[in-house]
Structure formats: structure tokens, C-alpha cells
Amino acid sequence: xxxxxxxxxxxxxxxxxxxxxxxxxxxxxxxxxxxxxxxxxxxxxxxxxxxxxxxxxxxxxxxxxxxxxxxxxxxxxxxxxxxxxxxxxxxxxxxxxxxxxxxxxxxxxxxxxxxxxxxxxxxxxxxxxxxxxxxxxxxxxxxxxxxxxxxxxxxxxxxxxxxxxxxxxxxxxxxxxxxxxxxxxxxxxxxxxxxxxxxxxxxxxxxxxxxxxxxxxxxxxxxxxxxxxxxxxxxxxxxxxxxxxxxxxxxxxxxxxxxxxxxxxxxxxxxxxxxxxxxxxxxxxxxxxxxxxxxxxxxxxxxxxxxxxxxxxxxxxxxxxxxxxxxxxxxxxxxxxxxxxxxxxxxxxxxxxxxxxxxxxxxxxxxxxxxxxxxxxxxxxxxxxxxxxxxxxxxxxxxxxxxxxxxxxxxxxxxxxxxxxxxxxxxxxxxxxxxxxxxxxxxxx
Length: 445
Ligand SMILES: [Zn+2]
Fold this sequence. Notes:
With 445 residues, the protein is of the alpha+beta class.
């Protein structure tokens, strides 16, 4: 499920997301460079003090140790992988791929030995504790077999073993950066690009057709690309914002490229055979150079489970501008046009769930404010296209519902509603329904 914006509202990874992806490429590279300089003296001191640890080098995979991070503070990490430096001459000449145990996997990175505080090394890892933590942390994922290079969202929740398999396979980011339009963007997760791309520190994407290349010169030659916007039909334009509907069957390569790109920012998104079955809704900011993708969501053409959204992503340079909420709102506007109720495919990512909760809270409580308690969940669902289960869970989580005499009763004290609305934050950009020119998908002969 999609990673989203509103990272700032997620306490466990708020500052983290803001530093890695939130600001986009150039700014956060700058921050990274600055912190490398700042902690150096302390690191030198700590590594001198740990001369006795030299005998234990290189550190084993699985080792737990404290690591200087870009916030100039020590954080606990676990060593996921290690590799020899090109200048290798002694066991000290390794670098380590570490997972910050307090943070989301998107912040995993390669660090130098000097960044590790060897006085804090713990070698015996308690696997049981770790298993439990992993299960608690990751209730999202799927068992779908990885059998092709196409990528789409999986469906089922993962059991611990499959989750471990996923984490083993995707443990090290393969592409560190991408260039897309005018942005250089640090990636967050592994993405299953064809093997010949795996040794590239940076990939260059054409921002219109999403073809990717290993070298800048290839991209420059490609710039004669005749597309200046995503393929497919423009179904919405309001001001500088446009939404394109791309049929995965008619634009297979684009759909696959989009999935490769999206996986760099979505952890638990599974490789999936067929983009044919999906429609992609690509949101763009338009100017005289073209329509620049800011994010997208995908949607199954036919969903038995009334899913109206499969994957959702706002690209890091565009996060925290209300685009994620716009995409969610848009998915419900499509459901209303179809006269259906919809729900996002599970599992939701951490940031995805936050955005959805915020959206559901705002939409439902605005209605409750007008109608007081004189409205049923069914009526709310009919008005909003939000599935009844999601309405119930949202209102329950806000403590606005009671079960009396076999019935759910909504309690809508205006003061309480206002308090929750305030906490839910701003609504983001509105979808102007009058600008949506769209008819529901129908299979053509
Ligand atoms: Zn192109």
C-alpha cells in the first residue's frame, strides 16, 4: 500500500521522513553532508576509545550497535549487510548497511565504521524479541510470489515467515537516487529493477514516459521524447493541476515503469504479474514545459472486494502539500460517479493509514456537524462513497459511537466534533468535481 505524505504527523518517523525524502533531493543531500562533518570529532574519539574492538572486526551481520545519525545523535542500529571498501587492506575497511531500529526501513543506509560507536556493540541478538517486534511493526505485506518484473500491490497480510522472506530479499536498497524532472530524489526502498540496473547508484527517468536510464547523457539524448505529459486521457484539469487516466493494458511499458519507480518509495508493494488489470491515475503540475508527475494512485479495473484504490504515492519532493489527500478524495469522487462505495486495498502503509484516517475524519465529521446525530452509517456511506466498515472504525477510534440495544448510535457533540476536526488538520487541496470529465471504465470488445 502506498506511502504517503503527512509524514510530519507520524511521530515515530516524522523528522526522519522530512530529512530523507520530504525535502526532495538537493536540500537533503546538503543536510547529510553537513552532519557528516559535524559528528566527526566525536566519532574519532569514540573509535579511538574502542581500539580493543579491533579484534572483532569486521562486525557480523546481526550485530547491534549505536550509530551517529544525521541529527548528530546516537541511535541504535542493526547491521543488515556489510561490504569491503574498494581500498580494502584490513578488517576495519568495511562499510555497513544498517537499519535504525527506531525508524522506518526507508532510512536504512550504508555507513562507515567511524559512524558506529563500537563501545556499544552487542553481538548476541535475541531473535525472539526481534520476531515479536517485527510482527508488531509490520502488519502489512503479502505472500504473492515474485514471479515477474511487474509490480503491483499485494493483498493479503503477511505471516512472519513471509515477512522475513520479503525483508531478506529487499534488505538493501539497490538504487540510492533517481533524477526525475528537475529533482534529484533519495530513494526509500528496494525496487526490483532488471539486474543490469542494480549496480547504478543513480537512475535517470524521463519524467513524461518514465523510461529510465543509467546515464545522464542517455537521458539528454532521450529528451526529444515526444510526450510532455503521461499517456492516456486527461480527465481533470483545474488551474495548474491535471489528472491523467492511464490504462495499463494500452500503456504497458508506462505502467511497468511507474511501478518500478513507485516501489522505490513503497515498502510492501509486491511484484505482480499484470499491469493490464489496472488503471493508473497520475496527478501532474502543469506549466509551459509540460505536465510533471507529482503522484498517482492505481485502481483495479474490476474489484470483487470493492477496492477503489490499490497503491498510492506522492513523490517525496511534492509531499506535505496536500496532494495525498487530493488523491484520496479523487478516488472517492470516481466511486461516486460509479455509484459504488469503495475502500483502499489493504494493507495500508503507516503514512497511508494516517492520510486515510485524516480524510475520513474530516469528511464524516463535517457531515455530522450539519446533521447532528440524525444520520445513519448507511446514509453517511451513500453520501461519501466511504465503505460502512471504514466509517464505523473511524467513528469508533474517535469514540463517537456507542452500541445500544443492538444498534450503533452516533454521538455527535458539536464541541467534541470540533476538537477532532482540529486535530485532523487541514484538508489539503479540494477536488473540483465540476472539472472531472470521466465515465467509469468499461471493457471494450
Ligand atoms: Zn520520455
